[in-house]
Specification:
two-stranded antiparallel ribbon; 14 helices; Amidase signature (AS) enzymes; 483 residues; globular
Length: 483
């Protein structure tokens, strides 16, 4: 029998409700896995074990007394270290906030607690979420569970690693240019990027830029969907927050792929993509594309997508971190400084043009779905790199113009306001996880998640495409050596 911590969140929640297991037993199993493996990975950077154990005891009591139980009752949940947690250190991966302890949960965390989730700890992130390598000046780098010397992606890297290794059944993430999707792909787990407003993000620095969203991560589509249901909530401080589609509270069923029109594209027509990943994607597509009603050839229109992303991201970073860079440049990571410096180089006309470009991209994206139901592409442009470098600087001897350019496969859909799910799809040629994105129109989250669930079942039946599992015994050995 596998350890409790390796079981799915949906199954664990069912077992807790039936009194088959105690929330205390589950928590102890997760803590044991963290203590056994995290020394080799550095995923859970702030631990809240004592408080979590008290909450697990209360959760057990509630079950025994027959009280009404929430969606996540008794399930340990990891919270990305960008999200404020009352009484638990929240550093944002920055030395400037190394000892910061919030007095209030942000809304998404409060919603998780309200549904019975038990916060087991905070997961590592790059400083202020800048970059797709989870590495910062407070805690250092988080290693990939399939090779701890390589990156787990970012910025939700700690959450992805903790999930992949069974440290917890659920973990939160956030996504701007791929911060949730890249680590899901690099670590072999599932990530959902909801449409803007589905999960209220009341702390977004520039409230009228909808690109940064909060979302769930899990080991299966069902698990991630369960956490999404708990995270959902309306907050007027987020101008995009609206009453959620009632369909997102209905039990999840897989779509009938035989009725789905899928556009299959290796690079969205505009993103850098390594030759090895193009070849691998084509190989994996041959496994599942026949299950769709039609396979549409072509690419979305992402003309000027790179520029609109860079400029509007610059606006966001100058607003959020411009003063910090002016006051504390020498204490900040190079990614934060780079974003602000490049943002300050733009003028008002640059920003106006970027808004026009993004609006055109988003409208063209909507029009695309008159002809297709989903778009499927890789989740990353290249295999995970060593985490002692900050980012990918070249792909197949082609230099990347900025430290973000290798992430175009995820940031271009952000400019379209796409809803998205990343699914594990086996291993690449370096024996590292390979992931795919299922993309849809904003507001069509339910359809995208249903397609992902059905496709997950197809992938699980093939040895080449099923979700890969890290070697827990080896990680435990490495952790002992590191300790």
């Amino acid at each position: 029998m596998s350890d409790l911590c390796d079981m799915t969140a949906v199954e664990l929640r069912r077992m807790i409700g039936r009194k088959d297991i105690s929330p205390v037993e589950l928590l102890d199993s997760c803590i044991a896995r963290i203590e056994a493996t995290d020394g080799a990975l550095n995923a859970v950077v702030t631990r809240s074990f004592d408080r979590a154990r008290d909450e697990a005891i209360n959760a057990e009591k509630a079950v025994l007394e027959g009280q009404e139980l929430g969606l996540l009752h008794g399930l340990p949940v990891g919270i990305k270290d960008l999200e404020a947690t009352s009484g638990i250190r929240t550093t944002l991966g920055s030395a400037l906030y190394a000892d910061h302890i919030p007095t209030k949960d942000q809304g998404s965390v409060a919603n998780i607690r309200a549904e019975g989730g038990i916060i087991i700890g905070k997961t590592n992130t790059p400083e202020f979420g800048a970059g797709a390598n989870t590495r910062n000046l407070v805690f250092g780098a988080t290693g990939n569970p399939f090779n701890p010397e390589k990156t787990c992606g970012g910025s939700s890297g700690g959450s992805a690693v903790a999930l992949a290794t069974g440290m917890m059944p659920l973990a939160s993430g956030s996504d701007y240019g791929g911060s949730l999707r890249t680590p899901a792909g690099f670590c072999g787990v599932v990530g959902i990027r909801p449409s803007p407003g589905v999960v209220a993000a009341e702390g977004r620095p520039v409230g009228l830029l909808p690109f940064s969203v909060l979302g769930p991560m899990g080991r299966t589509v069902d698990d991630a969907y369960l956490l999404l249901q708990a995270q959902i909530g309306v907050d007027p401080h987020d101008p995009f927050s609206t009453s959620p589609d009632i369909d997102l509270f209905a039990p999840l069923e897989g779509a009938d792929l035989g009725s789905i029109r899928a556009m299959i594209t290796a690079d969205l027509g505009a993103a850098p993509m390594s030759k090895s990943y193009r070849s691998l994607f084509a190989e994996r597509v041959s496994v599942f594309s026949r299950h769709f009603a039609t396979r549409v050839e072509g690419n979305p229109d992402f003309t000027d997508g790179d520029n609109s992303f860079e400029v509007l991201r610059g606006v966001n970073f100058v607003a959020a971190h411009g003063e910090r860079v002016r006051q504390h440049r020498d204490k900040l990571s190079p990614n934060v400084v780079d974003n602000v410096d490049r943002g300050l180089a733009y003028n008002l006309e640059d920003v106006a043009i970027a808004h026009l470009q993004q609006s055109k991209i988003a409208r063209n994206w909507l029009d695309l779905f008159d002809h297709v139901d989903v778009v499927i592409c890789p989740a990353a442009s290249t295999s995970p790199f060593r985490h002692n470098q900050w980012s990918v600087t070249e792909i197949d001897d082609v230099q990347m113009e900025t430290y973000m350019r290798w992430l175009a496969i995820t940031y271009l859909p952000t400019m379209a306001l796409a809803s998205a799910v990343v699914l594990p799809c086996g291993l690449d040629d370096h024996q590292m996880p390979f992931g795919i994105q299922i993309l849809g129109a904003p507001g069509r989250d339910r359809l995208v998640i249903e397609v992902a669930k059905a496709l997950e079942d197809v992938l699980a039946k093939n040895e080449q495409t099923r979700r890969p599992l890290p070697d827990i015994a080896n990680l435990s050995t490495l952790a002992k050596v590191a300790g």
